[in-house]
Amino acid sequence: MVEPEFRRFDTRALHAGQYPDPTTGSRAVPIHQTTSYVFDSVDQAAGLYNLETSGHIYSRISNPTVAVLEERLASLEGGVGAVCTASGMAALHLAVATLLNTGDHIVASRNIYGGAFILMNHTLPRFGITTTFVDPRDPEEFAKAIRPETRLVFAETLGNPGIEVLDIDAVSDVAHAAGLPLCVDSTFSTPYLINPIEHGADIIMHSVTKFLGGHGVAIGGTIVDGGRFNWEASGKFPTLTEPYEGYHNITFTEEFGPAALSMRARAEGLKDFGACMSPANAFYLLQGVETLPLRMARHVENTKHVVELLDGHDAVEWIKHPSHPSHPDHDLAKRLYPKGSGAILSFGVKGGRQAGRKFIESVKLASHLANVGDAKTLVIHPGSTTHQQMSVEDLETAGISEDLIRVSVGLEDAEDICGDLDKALKASQR
Amino acid sequence: MFFSLGGKQVHGATGAVSFEGRSDPIVVLIHGAGMDRTVWSQQTRFLAHHGFRALAIDLPDHGQSEGPALESIPALSDWIAEISDHFGEKIHLVGHSMGALTALHAAGHHKDSVSSVSLLGVGSSMPVHPELQEAADASDVKAAQLITSWGHGAKHHLGNNPTPGLSMTGGTQALIESTTRGVLSVDLAACSSYEEAVVSAENIECRTLFLLGSEDKMTPRKSAQPLIDAVSAEKEIVDFSSTGHMVMIEEPDLVRQKLLAHMTSS
What we know:
The complex is a heterodimer.
Chain A: H1 9-15, H2 42-49, H3 64-77, E1 81-85, H4 88-99, E2 105-109, H5 114-123, E3 130-134, H6 139-145, E4 150-156, H7 168-177, E5 182-185, H8 190-193, E6 203-207, E7 221-225, H9 231-234, H10 238-241, H11 252-256, H12 260-273, H13 279-290, H14 292-310, E8 316-320, H15 330-336, E9 344-349, H16 352-362, E10 367-368, E11 378-380, H17 392-397, E12 404-408, H18 414-428
Parallel strand pairs in A: 2-3, 2-4, 4-5, 5-6, 10-11
Antiparallel strand pairs in A: 1-7, 6-7, 8-9, 9-12, 11-12
Helix pairs in contact in A: 1-3, 3-13, 4-12, 6-7, 14-18, 16-18
Chain B: E1 2-5, E2 8-13, E3 26-30, H1 44-48, E4 53-57, H2 73-87, E5 91-96, H3 98-109, E6 114-120, H4 130-137, H5 141-151, H6 154-157, H7 168-177, H8 183-193, H9 197-203, E7 207-213, H10 221-230, E8 235-240, H11 247-250, H12 252-264
Parallel strand pairs in B: 3-4, 3-5, 5-6, 6-7, 7-8
Antiparallel strand pairs in B: 1-2, 2-4
């Protein structure tokens, strides 16, 4: 039987998007630390500005180092293209601003990163874009919340911080039945654990800062364009299907077909909004992506040990991780995430807020900070940090109790991680 | 741009440059099996701004053109000749794969309609692997995967796309996956059943350009040689190293320049 032959995931994590530099032979991706690029001729410059030809003009729009990261992420996700941004939040904003206009509406999971929630609930309404938040576990709620002016369905593959598992197939069916794209934030899962496009998602966004980068040294984001959504048939996205005066009346679907979103997001979004990724950050993040398969396997393995420690621990009230049989999405996670459902979990410390504070203050190896997906184990109390701008009601709706501790399991020796958490838990009860 | 041909709606991309009020020569770019106009995205807009009315056409039942899909290369060729009739002038033809066979047949059999012909990813025959045809018949995604896998040279499997941020293989696969159900099957059958390629090549009287990839697995370089040998008209052969079947995507800059030079001097 004949089978398609593609480079496999681990190979693409190392090589996709790059060939050794033809001039210098540099094997590593060079850092093209330049703002701009010399034109061969006036005609070539005009062609670049007019999207007649391809190449780099100015590093706010594109940069050779950033382009390698973009192509690599597109390859790992199975998309047609990617656009990297200054941060994950910039990526989310880019997706929204490329597709939506004043008066448009989003249906979003209510269990999402606090920053994304604030953007949708408080900031975007200033620009006339509103959001209805729904239970990510109930595709019917997504369907019921869709209005004539809805233009985007948004959710996280693994929710934050309850690790709700999105049934991507079911929610994408709901979105597509309404002629809408599904955008998922796959930061917690990474393309190593799941390719959402294969399950029907249309746009994948990442905070590349997290597991993809892995080292906690650079901020960055990306949107990956799945290229499967039929913008023309939907008829709801004039930014892609109608002439754009900003580029001599180009119609992005007409010229670029499956890559219409990528091309508009770059030609308008990066050019006009300007939240581009720096080449140095792209280089740092590429170093992380190269080892993504190795690191994620270890993250997942270490998480198993931490879940085993917390399961039945005297100081633990409850635990939320999809690998635990008590998690409501345990069966769904087994289907969607055969390699493991990520390395972020949450649990409640017996004794509530005060005990949670003691726990945080007692860890010696784990770091208390506002990040996830680092090589090092991280702990945080979301109610007082990442989600502190949310009201008590919004916190409850998002499933964030006052005793909730979020752990991002790192790559240290599992015995050391578990030993540190165990001692801190015991200390929290004194 | 939409226009009507035989009572059916036809669609093509013009590089966002209107045909109205222009008398520049027309170049029609013809896509391959299971694809549409957007495979020429790296050439259409360029040609439209360099002295040509460029029309990257959606063949019937592809892209936004009305169906049904045409079932043979001669039928596709007749349809292309109708475009020349529609505009009332000879046209330059650029074809890729199935589109190259279509352009080849049109150049050989509709001589009054064709100013020049450029053939990318072409062979004197285009047998289709039975498992590819089977997958296409079943509208199995494996068909898109096989074409994508075989369609790009080894270097371009990893990318390094001159268009920042775009994946060559990702784009090809998504495009074929989006084809109307059943159309790829019809297209592949049209390719494999076509047996007049060499005769068509012998009939060609216009300037002919061959743009060929050294790593083309769909139409191996050696399969183009009988066509090259058969063309007695003025011809140019350009071989692209480390390049597969999707020449215009893998080497967009060189293809643009070669097409422009070829058609400008025709």
